[in-house]
Write a structure and sequence with these properties.
CATH topology of one domain: Replication Protein E1, Chain: A
Structural class: alpha+beta
Radius of gyration: 27 Å
CATH architecture of one domain: 3-Layer(aba) Sandwich
Order of helices and strands: HHHEEHEHHEEEEHHEHEEEHEHHEHH
Strand order of the largest sheet: 8-3-5-4-12
Length: about 425
């Protein structure tokens, strides 16, 4: 995608309702978590505090910046750094989603039709995956096995589909709702690489296979009892669901990348978030009316809202997107090696690695504007320095008049102690003279 000629205007992170929420209530949330939220949300995970503190530095010049220079009008600009928080910062997550969608379309997906498939589980089982987050990966594995079994039974044992699974944990009102978004080939591949389309898809059959595989796996992992499994299988309305979307043609790159971005979108949308500072209330609107809540919005106090959205921050090292069958990492690696061996030997040319996209191109994909265009004269900007040292940052911001106002600190707390004639505290003196046991 080419960079457009529009001028990019940097965002103002302090004006974001999510930024104000975290800035005003983070310390109180950490203090009351063991007493108020540990029972329902589990113990406070270290990654939650780290991601939220890094979010408070995202887009702020006092935390570091790149200096851009326009040689035409001799104007200097400061470009603040990002936090790159996972599943929390809307700005960073949007850029990450676009980057992943572009990579998926160019490097992974075959030139065949694909379908968007959504799989959900009963409300009774959802808290289990919050207490034992390692089961989320097993949820994806069972869904992929059900899809592969359906394709093999319909087209033949040797036919395998390409499956990309995205693990989502947020519902329409940001409540805990683990479910799966899947991008699967509209058919399967035989061992010789021939694609066989599948018509039609039976969503009810896929749901049945998924339910059976997941319940058996949960029993094997001692997550549920055999009695609960029998009870769930006997429900008239199973609680499981599978939605199979319409096929996406392979030549529609825009639709494929949009769908891939949707698979890994951020759990929270700033357009639907309202923070009422005076009343200390948070209102979050849903895209449509939710029959479970009887309304299209939810109103919570700030601490309850922050505890709700931190549930969706993944643990370090836990992938949210997984690849199975024809798109599995091992299968793609084997095909790439085989293709390299079959190619005619040419002159020794060093293999060129795929370069990561520049910050400017990612910004242009998000906002459709060029961040390296001067806002004064429209000339090109050039990055001339990256500033990390806090002393240098403060000097530059003070010189430009951009330093944030200093926060007034309260006076130190007074404490009365008993001292001896030499001014030493009596209890510390007694501790020094007390013989060791």
């Amino acid at each position: 995608m080419e960079i457009t000629c529009r001028v990019y205007k940097p965002r103002r992170p302090r004006e974001s309702p999510l930024f104000r929420l975290v800035e005003q209530h983070l310390e109180e949330l950490l203090r009351v978590w063991p007493r108020r939220f540990a029972r329902t949300h589990g113990p406070l995970r270290p990654v939650v505090e780290r991601v939220m503190r890094e979010f408070l530095t995202c887009g702020l010049a006092e935390r570091g910046f790149a200096r851009a220079w326009c040689s035409t009008c001799r104007t200097s600009y400061l470009i603040p750094y990002s936090c790159r928080g996972r599943s929390f910062c809307p700005s960073c997550e949007k850029k990450r989603a676009l980057l992943w969608a572009e990579w998926l379309h160019e490097e992974v997906l075959e030139g065949v039709p694909h379908r968007h498939i959504v799989m959900t589980i009963p409300r009774l089982l959802r808290p289990l995956f919050r207490r034992r987050r390692e089961l989320l990966r097993d949820l994806a594995r069972c869904a992929a096995a059900a899809l592969a079994a359906h394709v093999e039974k319909s087209l033949g044992e040797a036919v395998r589909p390409g499956i990309v699974v995205s693990i989502a944990t947020a519902g329409d009102l940001a409540q805990w709702h683990p479910h799966l978004h899947i991008l699967a080939t509209d058919g399967g591949f035989s061992p010789d690489g021939t694609f066989h389309p599948l018509e039609p898809w039976d969503g009810e059959r896929v749901m049945t296979l998924f339910r059976q595989a997941l319940l058996e796996h949960l029993v094997a992992r001692h997550a549920i009892s055999e009695e609960l499994k029998v009870k769930l299988l006997g429900w008239r309305h199973p609680g499981f669901s599978t939605h199979v979307g319409e096929p996406i043609p392979p030549n529609d790159a825009r639709a494929i990348e949009d769908m891939a971005s949707y698979l890994v979108r951020n759990p929270v949308s700033l357009k639907r978030l309202v923070y009422i500072d005076g009343q200390q209330a948070v209102v979050y609107r849903a895209l449509r009316s939710n029959p479970s809540f009887g309304a299209n919005f939810v109103a919570l106090d700030p601490l309850e809202w922050l505890a709700r959205i931190t549930d969706h921050i993944p643990d370090p090292g836990r992938h949210r997107t997984l690849f199975y069958a024809h798109y599995a990492n091992r299968a793609r690696g084997a095909r790439a090696k085989e293709k390299k061996l079959l190619e005619a030997p040419a002159a020794e040319v060093p293999e060129k690695r795929r370069c990561s996209p520049t910050w400017a191109r990612l910004i242009s994909k998000v906002y459709h504007a060029d961040p390296l265009t001067c806002r004064r004269c429209g000339g090109p900007l050039q990055i001339v320095a990256y500033i990390h040292d806090q002393f240098t940052i403060k000097r530059i911001l003070d010189h430009l008049g951009l330093s944030p106002p200093e926060v007034e600190r309260p006076p130190p707390e007074l404490r009365y102690v008993h001292v001896d004639h030499e001014g030493r505290e009596l209890h510390s003196l007694l501790a020094e003279e007390r013989p060791s046991p």
